[in-house]
Automatic annotation (TrEMBL):
Keyword tags: Signal, Transport
Record bears the keyword Nucleus: no
Record-level GO cellular component terms: cell envelope
PANTHER family noted in UniProt: HIGH-AFFINITY ZINC UPTAKE SYSTEM PROTEIN ZNUA-RELATED (PTHR42953)
Protein name per UniProt: Anchored repeat ABC transporter, substrate-binding protein
Amino acid sequence: MTASACGGVATPADDGRTRVVTTTGILADLARHVGGDLVDVESLVPEGGDPHSYEPSLRDIRDIVYADAAFSNYLLLEEQSVIRAVDANLPDGVPNVSLAERAVTYAAEIIPLVENVNLDTIWLGLRVRGTGEAAGATRSSEVRLKATGLAGPGDLIGYLTETFGDPTVFFDSSDGFDAGGGYQDDTATLPPDAHTHMSWAFTEPGVYHLELAAELIPTRESRPLDLGTTRITFAVGVDPHSVPGMAGATVLDAGHADVTVDVDRAADEQGGSIHLLADPHGGGGHPESHPAADTVVEVPNKALTEVPGDPKFRFLGRAGEDIHQLPQAVLGRHVHGEIDPHLWQNVRNAMAYVKIIRDTLTEIDPEHAATYRANAAAYLRELEELDAYVAATIAEIPPSRRQLVTTHDAFGYLGAAYDVSIAGFVTPNPATEPSLAERRRLSETIANLSVPAVFLEPNLRSRSNTLVQVAEEHDIEVCTLYGDAFDEEVSSYVAMMRANAASLRDCLA
């Protein structure tokens, strides 16, 4: 989306203030504290919105076009269309600041995003490895992974379930693969150095061979760069060691794995750019690379499930019909990189953000530098007090009871900074009932750890029936915890962190 799409959207009145756009309401709140009355701040993602899935509007594009500075969190927190809108429409020379990435130089502490969700089957996602800088790629570039053919006894559908339960289909063999359209209806798109979760469904048992092709689009004006082709083999409800023509092949049957496109590896190199990157133990260790064409992914009989009754999932078949499915491991759209992007859950990291915003505003509006520095100094003192409050409040919880069970893995920094153990539960598919094994695992986690409460973000409460039901079975509370967004009751960063600390103390202690 570019500025030319803004026809019919009014130009903002020029009141002399510095115009700032941020991607989220949390960043907007920080910027308003630094800028004060001198700055007009607009958040692209609205109150209560999900930055992982928000699609920018024409009004958002207008705000970007007329901005004097833009602040994103990045580290792949925001939906790629939001980042692309900022990068494509921000005027030349206007600061475009990725706060999470720059915060390291301001003493922010970052932690890796280690995903250790255990499923009954292998967890299979998609990944782009590398930045593609040698080919001219940036954070706005995209890698396209296309399904170009399938041999098998039934249909294969690869899809993702959004945060609020709506499915997005990446691959669907039921209507064929259209080469004339560039396979656009069977294409998954990711930015460089990113990863996404997804579900893989199969309508009949047997052996499936999925043909894939990858290409890199460095810029909108660039010709696609071929990254090669490969074949992925799935053994669905049959012996994975007896696939015809694949004697001695590596079998992936547990842990985490990704169909991986390596954009820093030429397609004509031995093995090509597409491979399977697997962490067999699912603990975030050093993954093993396997040539995709020489690997079998097992979809065991315990992956048998029913098509949900929700009409939105009719692309899988009729409600109640049996399918085999490798489930999505994490609730919602969840494209991310190797570093946890939710830095602000540690107040010290939010202080680094404030310093970056201060220095940026001082650079673009030196006439009011003294005011920006004074505003920032006052706010940093408030954040110092906030950090002490959060630490002291959570310290009131006995260490053995500092166990956080929630639906969204947005609280790693809170756990690391304030000594809270993340014992989290995330449902593979928010639109279907979790399996008995998944419910049992959640129930055992709550019982074994004597967890007195579970926590939900306000905008996810209506989609978390299983967590609520299991909490009721154990006669424990369901409490509120804010992650990515404010709501009508909590509308500032300080209020959010105070509310989180108080909720943890009141519900766990």
